[in-house]
Amino acid sequence: MKKIFIALLLVFIGIAITASWSFAGGHKVIDGKELETMMSDGKPIVIVDVREPELFSAGRIKGAINIPYDDARPRILKELSPNDRIVFVCHGGPMGDELGSILVKNGYKDVYNLKGGMRKWKGEVVK
Question: What is the pTM of this model?
């Protein structure tokens, strides 16, 4: 009985850790493959690149819009619809996590952040 309890406890801990990796602040953290799937599934998507304009211009994910992180707080609630499927992209992930949390706290439901940001993106980059 004790072994079963320990095994179930370890499973529960594993699920809790996995959930904390997948969700941050109420939005889902996705990897590049998941974003590529979302981009090709036929449903509208708004990819918000929060890097500086120079980096955005040098190379971005196809279809992305630029709302630089320093300007994002006052802009995202005005410019992004709660009805949209929104994916944040930054250098490495943390800035998108923070902005995604802001949207979720304001009632947005379909919000994502690209894990690892552009550093980990292996898909097409356009200029």
Answer: 0.80
